[in-house]
Design goal:
The complex is a heterodimer of chains A (390) and B (247). Chain A has helices at 2-18, 20-56, 80-88, 149-155, 199-205, 210-213, 233-243, 252-257, 262-294, 296-304, 309-340, 352-379, 382-385, and strands at residues 62-66, 78-79, 92-106, 114-121, 131-134, 144-148, 162-169, 172-184, 194-198, 219-220, 222-227, 247-251. Chain A contains 13 helices and twelve strands. In chain A, the strands form two sheets. Chain A has a six-stranded mixed barrel with strand order 3-4-9-6-8-7. In chain A, strands 2-10 form a two-stranded antiparallel ribbon. The two termini of chain A are 35 Å apart. In chain A, strand 3 and strand 4 (114-121) form a beta hairpin. Chain A has two domains: 2-51 and 263-385, no CATH class; 68-245, no CATH class. Chain A is elongated. Chain B is of the alpha/beta class. Chain B has a domain at 98-168. Chain B contains seven helices and ten strands. In chain B, the strands form two sheets. In chain B, strands 6-7-8-3-9-10 form a six-stranded mixed β-sheet, sandwiched between helices. Chain B has a four-stranded antiparallel β-sheet with strand order 2-1-4-5. In chain B, a hairpin with a 2-residue loop joins strand 4 and strand 5. The longest helix of chain B has 18 residues, at 183-200. The chains are: A alpha+beta (390), B alpha/beta (247). At the A-B interface, helix 1 and helix 10 of A face helix 1, helix 2 and helix 3 of B.
C-alpha cells in the first residue's frame, strides 16, 4: 500500500508540475468558485446576522408575544401589566419588555442620516444589552441611550456624545436629543444598526400615529424571558401560556425563524450556495474527464508495463485533491483580500463555522466531480488503448 | 498436457489458441501455436496483417488470456493467472516497447527508465546509476533530462528500450519498434536492441512488418492465419529473408 501510494504521488505530482500552466488554470476556476461560494456564505451570514443579531444574543430563552401575532414582533402588542404576570410565573428568573421601532439618526455635517432600529428596553432587565464601553442605562425615563457597535462604527459617535433622532409623530417630524452612555457589541435588528433607549423614553421618542400620541399607556411588542432553569424551555413555555392570558411564547430559535423574510432569505442564499457547489462539481468533473480522455494511450502504456489499477486511481485522486486544495487556498486568499475592501454597509460576515463548512464542501467537490474520471481511468484496457486489439 | 514446472526455456508456449465468437462463427486469431525462446535469444515474429502476431504478442505480454494452451514464463503459466497476478508479471518479468507513444510524456528520459524500478520498489542509488549508464550507452547521455516531446522518434525508442530492460525482465517484447523511424534509425535501434538482449541474456521477441530488421535476430517465426507456418533458423536463410525487404 505504501509503495502504491508513493508511486501514485510521484506520478500525480510530476504530471502537475510538468503541466503546471494547465493545472493552474483549473485551480483558478476552482478559486473563483471558492470565492463565489464563500461570498454567498458570508452574505447569508451577514444578512442573517443583521436580521437576528439582537434576538440571538438576548440573555434569555423565551419571547412572549401577543396571542395570534404569529410570532411577528411588529404585530404584537403587550401592555405593561402583562410583564408583571410573566414575572410572577414560577420558574421565570426575569422578564423585560422590548419595544421595536425605526428612527433616523441625524448626523453632524454633510453625513447622510442613518436609519436605525430604535429599541426600548428596561434598564437592568432581560433585553438590555451589556455594554462593552460606558455604563448600562440608569432609569426607565432617562434621556440616554446605548448604541451598538455597528452604530458607533458608522457614525463615529462615542460615549458621552449626544445624538439626535428624527421620528414622525402624528404628521410632524419630531427631534429628540439623547446622551450616549454606553456602547454594546453588535446587536443589529432588522438589518439596521441599533439604539437602545430606556423603555419609557423609547415610548416617548418612537414614531407614533396621532391616535397613539393621545394614548397614555406604553405598550411593548414582546417580553423577553430568562428562566431559572434554561433547560426547561418547553415546560416553561406551556406554563406561561397557561398562566398569562392571551399570549403565545416562542423560543429564540423560533423567534428568529419567524423574523420577516429571514427564512426565505436564508433558503435562497443556501440554494445559491448549493447550486454553485453543484456547478463546481460539473466543472471539475468535466475537466478531469476530458483530461483522462486525452490520456487514454498514456494510461494504457502505464498499465501495459505493469502499473496497477490502484496506482492509476490513486494518482488521479491525488491530482484532483491537490488541484482542488490549491484552488480553494487561492480562492480563500482572494476572498480574504476582497473582504478587506468591502465597506461596512455591505452585510458580509465571515463566520468561522460557516466558512469552514463551505471550504470542506469545496474540498469535497473535487473528488466528487472526479469520481467518474477515476472510474474511467481504472477501466481503461491497455490492449485497446495501445491499439493491440486489432 | 506437459508439466508446467519444467521448461528449459525462458519462454515457452504450448498449443496456444485465441478464439473469438463473431457473427460469421468462431474466429481463431491464434491457432495452436507452440514456440520456445531461450534466454539470450532474439526472435522476430513476422507475418502479414491479420496473421495473429499482434494477438500472440498481447498474450505473451500478459495483456490477453489465451482461450486454451499454456504460456510459460520462467516456468509460470500466464494463462492460469488472475488479472492482478498478470499485472505483477508485466511489472517484474516483462519489458515492453510499443510502436509509438511509448513514453510517459511528463517524465524525462531518465525518469521514464527509472519508472520500472520505481514500480518494482527497487529504485535505489545503484538503480539510478544503472538507468543513467544504460541511457548513456544508448547514446542518450546528453538527453537524460529531456522530456519525450523534446526528443526524436529514434531517441524515444531508445529510451523505451532502456525502460524495457532496466528491471532485468526475463522476457523483452517489442511491437513494431521501427514503425515510426527512418531506415537508418530503424537499423540502429534494432541493432542496439539485439545487442543488449544477447549481452544481458534476456529472451527477446520483436514483432515486425519490416523483414529487413530480421538481419539482427537469431530466429524468425512466421505466422499466417493464426498459425505458426515457418521457422527460419539458418543464418543464410534469415539474411536472405532480410535482404528481401518488407513483407
Amino acid at each position: 500500500m505504501k509503495q502504491t501510494f508513493a508511486v501514485s504521488t510521484y506520478l500525480a505530482l510530476k504530471e502537475i508540475w510538468r503541466n503546471r500552466g494547465r493545472f493552474l488554470l483549473v485551480s483558478l476556476v476552482i478559486a473563483l468558485i471558492t470565492l463565489l461560494v464563500l461570498f454567498i456564505a458570508a452574505l447569508g451570514e451577514g444578512l442573517g446576522n443583521g436580521n437576528r443579531e439582537y434576538i440571538a444574543k438576548l440573555d434569555g430563552e423565551l419571547l412572549v408575544y401577543q396571542a395570534k401575532a404569529d410570532f411577528l414582533i411588529a404585530a404584537s402588542r403587550l401592555d405593561t401589566a402583562r410583564v408583571n404576570e410573566v414575572r410572577q410565573v414560577a420558574g421565570v428568573a426575569d422578564a423585560g419588555m422590548i419595544g421595536t421601532a425605526s428612527a433616523t439618526l441625524i448626523l453632524d455635517g454633510d453625513a447622510d442620516p442613518l436609519k436605525v432600529a430604535l429599541l426600548g428596553v428596561e434598564p437592568g432587565r432581560v433585553g438590555e444589552p451589556p455594554v462593552i464601553e460606558g455604563r448600562q442605562l440608569s432609569a426607565d425615563d432617562a434621556d440616554e441611550v446605548i448604541i451598538d457597535r455597528n452604530t458607533a462604527i458608522r457614525t463615529n459617535l462615542a460615549v458621552g456624545d449626544t445624538l439626535t433622532l428624527r421620528v414622525t409623530q402624528g404628521t410632524e417630524d419630531a427631534f429628540f436629543t439623547l446622551t450616549i452612555v454606553g456602547i454594546s457589541d453588535g446587536r443589529q435588528y432588522s438589518l439596521q444598526p441599533a439604539i437602545f433607549a430606556p423603555f419609557l423614553t423609547w415610548d416617548r421618542v418612537r414614531p407614533q400615529s396621532a391616535a397613539e400620541l393621545n394614548f397614555a399607556d406604553a405598550t411593548a411588542n414582546v417580553i423577553a424571558v430568562r428562566l431559572v432553569d434554561p433547560n426547561a424551555v418547553e415546560a416553561m413555555r406551556q406554563e406561561i401560556v397557561a398562566q398569562v392570558d392571551k399570549v403565545e411564547v416562542a423560543t429564540l430559535k423560533e423567534a428568529i425563524q419567524a423574523l420577516p423574510g429571514y427564512s426565505a432569505q436564508q433558503s435562497t442564499l443556501n440554494t445559491q450556495g448549493g447550486f454553485t457547489l453543484f456547478i463546481g462539481i460539473l466543472v471539475i468533473g468535466g475537466f478531469f474527464q476530458i483530461q483522462i480522455l486525452q490520456k487514454v494511450s498514456q494510461i494504457g502504456v502505464l498499465k501495459a508495463i505493469g502499473t496497477s489499477n490502484p496506482i492509476v486511481a490513486w494518482a488521479a485522486v491525488i491530482q484532483i485533491v491537490v488541484i482542488t486544495a490549491v484552488g480553494v487556498a487561492i480562492g480563500g486568499l482572494l476572498t480574504f483580500l476582497f473582504s478587506l475592501f468591502f465597506p461596512p454597509t455591505v452585510p458580509i460576515v465571515f463566520n468561522g463555522t460557516t466558512s469552514a463548512i463551505a471550504l470542506v464542501a469545496l474540498l469535497l467537490i473535487g473528488p466528487a466531480g472526479g469520481l467518474v474520471s477515476i472510474r474511467y481511468a481504472v477501466r481503461i484496457e491497455p490492449l485497446k488503448a495501445l491499439g493491440l486489439n486489432s | 498436457m506437459n508439466d508446467t514446472k519444467h521448461t528449459p526455456y525462458a519462454l515457452e508456449t504450448r498449443a496456444v489458441v485465441k478464439k473469438y465468437q463473431a457473427d460469421a462463427g468462431t474466429i481463431f486469431a491464434v491457432n495452436d501455436v507452440s514456440l520456445q525462446v531461450a534466454a539470450g535469444e532474439f526472435v522476430a515474429l513476422v507475418g502479414p496483417s491479420g496473421s495473429g502476431k499482434t494477438t500472440m504478442l498481447s498474450m505473451l505480454a500478459a495483456l490477453l488470456k489465451p482461450s486454451s494452451g499454456q504460456i510459460l514464463l520462467d516456468g509460470e503459466d500466464l494463462a492460469g493467472m488472475s488479472d492482478a497476478e498478470r499485472v505483477v508479471m508485466r511489472r517484474e518479468k516483462i519489458g515492453f516497447t510499443f510502436q509509438a507513444n511509448n513514453l510517459v510524456p511528463y517524465l524525462s528520459a531518465v525518469e521514464n527508465v527509472e519508472l520500472m524500478l520505481r514500480l518494482n520498489g527497487r529504485l535505489d542509488k545503484a538503480g539510478k546509476l544503472r538507468a543513467r549508464e544504460l541511457l548513456a550507452r544508448l547514446g542518450l547521455g546528453e538527453r537524460l533530462n529531456n522530456l519525450p516531446g523534446q526528443m526524436s522518434g529514434g531517441q524515444q525508442q531508445r529510451v523505451a528500450i532502456a525502460r524495457a530492460l532496466i528491471h532485468n525482465p526475463s522476457l523483452v517484447l517489442a511491437d513494431e519498434p521501427t514503425a515510426s523511424l527512418d531506415t537508418e534509425r530503424a537499423y540502429q535501434v534494432v541493432e542496439t536492441f539485439a545487442g543488449l538482449i544477447h549481452e544481458w541474456q534476456r529472451a527477446g521477441i520483436m514483432v515486425t512488418h519490416d523483414l529487413r530488421m530480421c538481419e539482427y535476430v537469431d530466429r524468425v517465426l512466421q505466422m499466417q492465419d493464426g498459425k505458426l507456418v515457418q521457422i527460419y533458423t539458418d543464418r543464410d536463410e534469415i539474411m536472405k529473408l532480410a535482404k528481401g525487404g518488407k513483407d
